[in-house]
């Protein structure tokens, strides 16, 4: 560049642009672009402007040096030089350049040359995007541009009006007056063909049609008058456009979006759903995918219309494309209702057995929720859940086990049927740990019914006590069994000691073996059960009696979702085998303490769940007196504040404890949308004077419907006692879309005991 003469400068810069396209650094050529732009020769200006568009952007200081050259060239006598300046400004113009040159663009919008007018309109679009308040300059001229006959000018004018309406509500109200004119233009495109040279596969100017439909959607949103003015047009487009070509499908898809977004008539909405149904039969997977994506958005508002295409949607579950399968699954789950639950569940269970591993957890969760909501009978409900556990027991959530156990206990007339079915599944396959845990629990609880085998609804089995104990011992010894499954099996074995008569010694020997187990949890259970055999044998029958029926009205009665606060690694988070270690509320703890003091005769017989729910407030009891002596152990509601709520995701903050220099906080995240949210993470930042310690979260998946929550504890150390401030960043994935948001917290709730 330094040694070459004027004739070689353009060639050298062209070579540099090629080097830049190959990915090599070319920033040293920026000033050469500025020099060539200032040249009076068109050939040099052309290369200079091209280089500026490729090598410069609004962050480069050198871009400010060409502002004056662009301003001069916008007033040039040659339309080609004006075009170069307009293209460059629209491509890389910074906010400062746009502010300085906006009046020049306004002047060129009235140019007589359609070539320059088209580029000036697109330049105005860029300026409006950069500085929305400058849209007022172009609003008066934009209305008159709709009367242009040139295709490029009209297309650009529609784009400009769309940008103006999206940026300013006042401008939107002003442009609603142009709806009749837009409808007239659109009808001309449909009926007579606006410009033959812009036809694509027999569709008249599909690009302009799509732009006009998009603008009509914005103008008709939340406005009855504008919506009524375009209803007839939309019906005409929907019925007269050929969907066999890609161009026609694009116009129809934009029509459907417009119909669903404005206040359209019910018949028109049904027509739009039928168009999406036709898209489902298209051979192009992309068209099928966008069709199901659109149906997913409207299934709640137009459920009946979408139901007509249920068969086609279910067929899409067999598609080879993973994205189409996922969309078909989500839509199928949304279509489940009380009237089609049996038919849809058969299809979903077949899909569960063949679906990819990454979809099994989502499929199982959806089946659980649908079965809980629409189950025609308890037996059907139990059979469905057992089918899922047999097929994909390794992919279900941890809370499925306690919830299924709760369902089984409430169906007292199905205990024999359920335990026989679970026993058969257990001896067939012990690799599905969720199934193993439920089977062990039921065998321990209803082992006597299993041995009788008196059930009319299932083929009878002649079982001996040794057969049942062999099955449990297989679980205890299998390398596939998890520690939790072994704990279930050991407790079930212990419970059988009160339900059988001839093999108590074998049970005693099995339990004693695990008194020296390397697993601390299993070892503790075995030691306690051995003590029950030796020191407290007179109490064994009472301690190991059958669990009472769990009250259906208790909170958290949802099979596919978290019940209460479930902790993955804690045995207190789910009903362990036999239910002997359910979490207890303070009242039941008081009763246990009385038990230790030898005052069991004054305590009414009740299950742990019943005593945890609420003792009779009217009846005097030693437990209540003891609570009074201890100063009252009633549960205190911890105050919390909602610090974030957006798109169905909410985040609450509560203060658990506070000292002079430290405070312990708990964040609770919930999801009220219809889809599971995955990869949920929290990040926090505090001032340098405050020390932050974040504990591990309770999970990373927020199930749909707000049935469970993710909690995370944060400890703040504030030795300098400055005002607490915190900035929290949320990150999660919703239907494959990664969402991030930040919230500033300046005020914190007080702890419950202050």
TrEMBL record:
What are the alphabetically sorted keywords of the record? Cytoplasmic vesicle, Golgi apparatus, Membrane, Protein transport, Transport
Gene Ontology terms: cellular component: AP-1 adaptor complex
**Membrane topology summary:** Peripheral membrane protein
Question: Which GO terms of type biological process are on file?
Answer: intracellular protein transport; vesicle-mediated transport
Segments passing through the bilayer: none
Family matches, as PANTHER family? ADAPTIN, ALPHA/GAMMA/EPSILON (PTHR22780)
Task: Specify the protein name.
Answer: GAE domain-containing protein
Annotated organism of origin: Electrophorus voltai
